[in-house]
Amino acid sequence: MSEKGLYIQMFSIHGLVRLNNPELGRDADTGGQVLYVVELAKHLALREDIRKVDLFTRLISDPKVSDDYARPIEEYSDKCRIIRVQCGGRKYIRKELLWPHMDEYIDKTVKFIIRENDFPDILHGHYPDAGYVAMNLANIFGLPFIYTGHSLGLSKKQKLINDGMKESDIKRVYKMGTRIAAEENILKSADLVVASTNQEKTDQYATYMNSDFPDYKVIPPGIDVDRFYPFYHDRLPEEEKSEMEKYAQANLLKQLDRFLVFPDKPLILALSRPDKRKNITGLIQAYGEDKELQALANLAIFAGIRKDIDEMEDNEKDVLTRMLLEMDRYDLYGKLAIPKKHDVEYEVPALYRIAAEKHGVFVNPAMTEPFGLTLLEAGATGLPLVATNDGGPRDIMEYCQNGILVDATNTREIADAIKTLLTDPDYWEECSRNGIMNVRKYYTWESHADTYIHSIKPLTKTLNRSKMTKPRPYTPIGKRLTQLKRFLIADIDDIMLCDDMKELKKLGQWIEKNRDKIAFGVTSGRNIDEISEFIKKNSIPAPDITISAAGTEIYYGKELHYDNGWETHIANRWEPEKIKKLLKRFRFLTVKEKPAQRDFKISYTMPPEKDRMSKIHDLLSKNKCRYTLAYYDQDHLDVLPYRASKGKAIRYISYKWETPLSSFLVCANTGEMLVGEPMGVVVGADAARKDRTGKIIKKGKSIYFAKKRCAGGILEGIEKYRFGNIN
Q1: DSSP 8-class letter at 500
Q2: What 8-state DSSP symbol labels residue 239?
Q3: Which of the ends of the chain has fewer CB neighbours closer than 10 A, N or C?
């Protein structure tokens, strides 16, 4: 942290994110999370102890959405920006389809950070996709990592199963396996998890295997009480309201009048995305089944923003179609309003105040509600609540005392709660007053930001940041690597190490011929002495970079300058003695001889047998160890720091020497070295394309499968990518 304050980078990748007038409810990906991250960024930036806040999201250039989302940088103030990074093309796609592009997002974000030459103090990921990105960036730069889930995959999966959806369909549609695996890794790496409610912390996160790893802090979201002011302020003189506020109120009344025969009745209001979990049809059924309730009040449901239902995704289409069918089934024409759109900035606050002015009720009938931001908005205007007794509404009602909690599966209970508020004026007034006062007491963005900063500052004080500075440019290797534009990195084991000395000699000649424009590096699970002996014995040109001991050590040049920054980076939370002690109980593990052991690599032999890896994972995870397991050739097991691997070391070199990964040619026999943007070569691969770990290397646009083995395959890859041709 600089003397001027913290620099925070937040990540919220999916959905349509912009600083003003968010299109909440446009689709399933543009909901409360979008509003949350934007408001948090804005209010953090107002503080004197904050130097800068950047909110990273995805750049989208698509004629179906506003041009706002194609702006690479959107400034709110000199301390607050939205940064848009393109990945997975430019079209708008739903969040479940973004997973294959997250490594591309990471690579491009690192380039942005290095280009800006301004490193953050804190990285905060929102939702698993952004959590994955922030986690990897934190590992790269050695920074504290904060996570907010907003919703959890295990909870969602169980709800979908309860709704009758097949597990195979859940996996296919929602990529649930990928999401839950990412959440488990995030919990294992996070320094702090911010939860919105106690129930989220104690019940929802507790279902994860790695839930005990991070620290948790419950910080409820806030709202802008200047926008969501009490309904009775509308009785002030007209000159005290803006023209936009006047227009919003008039427009909403006009929309409601189109649907309602008796528009002066009290208004039951619901506002949410058209999602099955929001249980909108349950509210319509509760209303439709109760003639007394229909006589008492009108019902208005604002279910997102829509143009043509047929063009919406299946989940939203099903909900909206069901709403219309239920409206017809109970003959609610003239009593039920379902407008097609609403403006978030001005019309939503006005909508709550209109309902409060009519002495109505706001209803959240969701099956489960992680938090319930709309409940705070409604409460702040003086509109009493009926809400689901599941998740966030419990905390809100405990603090605000402004309504009734119900079982959302019981339509009779929903209807009775609404009638209680509508027919008891004294109770309505009490709930209205409590909401106005208590939301301002407990749920402002100012209080949220204050608690947030006090929670994260201790993490920055103990920050063991990796120093990414280069060796001084006037040293031979420093000057050389600063000037080169391309890097050839080859794995020794099973790649260069082979019997074909003729091809190995050709490769050496090519390296020497192109030394003036290409840096040469090697990687291996072996220690540095063994690698040096191999290089010397086979007359291979001296590498510019040597990544040894399975990616835990980096050396430069003939003099083998050791990279202390990499050691600092991977040393974070590395507890080798604790790990060794724990693993002693497994008789199937045999400790290798001393040359194989390094400060950041614990090596064993382990014959293959079912569930052995899962037993090791289970033991180390339960004891809160941070680690990476590398099992290869069905015999060798390395336990490494969780930030270490050969692939991560290559990325570190890319960032450190400011050379994009797209300028690297990586020749490897393990898939993790080929992740992201480097040009990849797999040499002499068998038909199944399996790597040394037994995993299948998936063919991608930047991975070439060479027919030749070893050095011959490397030369084939060099020719394929025209790697020696540099303008």
Answers
A1: -
A2: G
A3: C
Pairing verdict, β 192-195 and 215-218: parallel
Q: How far is CA 635 from CA 597, 603, 606, 669, in A?
A: 16, 11, 5, 16
DSSP state of 495: I
Q: In what order do the strands lie in the sheet with 664-667?
A: 561-562, 553-556, 545-548, 518-523, 486-491, 664-667, 679-683, 703-706
* Least confident span in 70-74, 139-143, 507-511, 621-625: 139-143
pLDDT digits (tens, 9 = 90+) for 176-187: 999 999 999 999
DSSP 2: B
- Report CA Rg, the chain: 29
Classify domain 6-222+449-461 at the CATH class level.
Answer: alpha beta
Model pTM? Answer: 0.68
- Strands (DSSP E) contained in 45-118 are 50-58, 73-77, 80-85
Q: Fill in the DSSP letter of residue 78.
A: T
Provide the edge-to-edge strand list for the sheet that holds 80-85: 73-77, 80-85, 50-58, 6-11, 122-126, 145-148, 192-195, 215-218
For residues 423 and 697, the model is more confident at 423
**Token pair of 414 as six digits:** 């929903």
Q: Would you give the end-to-end CA distance of the chain in angstroms? A: 41
Checking DSSP bridges between strand 703-706 and strand 664-667, what pairing results, if any? unpaired
Question: 467-572+644-727: which CATH topology?
Answer: Rossmann fold (3.40.50)
Its CATH architecture, for the domain 231-442, is 3-Layer(aba) Sandwich (3.40)
Structure confidence at residue 76 (pLDDT): 95
Indicate the domain borders of the chain: 6-222+449-461, 231-442, 467-572+644-727, 577-642
Question: For residue 705, what are the β-bridge partners?
Answer: 682
Q: What is the phi/psi pair of residue 521, to 5°? A: -140, 155
Helix axes 243-259, 347-357, angle to 10 degrees: 60
Q: How far is residue 718's CA from residue 63's CA, in Å, rounded to a whole number?
A: 40
Amino acid identity for residue 351 in this structure: L
Question: How many CB atoms neighbour CB 511 within 10 A?
Answer: 21
Give the span between the Cα atoms of 346 and 513, in whole angstroms.
Answer: 67
Nearest Cα residue to 619 out of 578, 572, 590: 578
Fold agreement (231-442, 467-572+644-727): yes
CB 338 within 8 A of CB 327: yes
- Is residue 339 a contact partner of residue 402, using CB atoms and an 8 Å limit? no
How many residues appear in the chain? 727
Q: What average pLDDT does the segment 195-224 reach? A: 91
Burial classification of residue 439, based on how many CB atoms lie within 10 Å of its CB (0-12 exposed, 13-18 middle, 19 or more buried):
buried
Residue 466 predicted with pLDDT over 50: no
- 536 CB neighbour count, 10 Å cutoff: 10
For the residues of 99-143, what is the DSSP string, one character each?
Answer: GGGHHHHHHHHHHHHHHHT---SEEEEEHHHHHHHHHHHHHHHT-
For 453, counting Cβ atoms within 10 Å of its Cβ (0-12 exposed, 13-18 middle, 19+ buried), the class is middle
Alpha helices in 123-269 (DSSP H): 127-141, 153-162, 167-174, 176-189, 198-199, 243-259
Identify the band that residue 694 occupies on the pLDDT scale cut at 50, 70 and 90: low
Are 386 and 362 a contacting pair, CB within 8 Å? Answer: yes
Give, for 545, the enclosing helix (H) or strand (E).
strand 545-548
Q: At what angle do helices 373-381 and 32-45 cross, to 10 degrees?
A: 70
For residues 298 and 266, the answer to whether their CB atoms sit within 8 Å is yes
Long-range contacts of 688-696 (CB under 8 A, 24+ apart): 692/493, 692/494, 692/632, 692/633, 693/630, 693/631, 693/632, 694/631, 694/632, 694/634, 695/671, 696/671
CATH architecture of the domain covering 577-642: Alpha-Beta Complex (3.90)
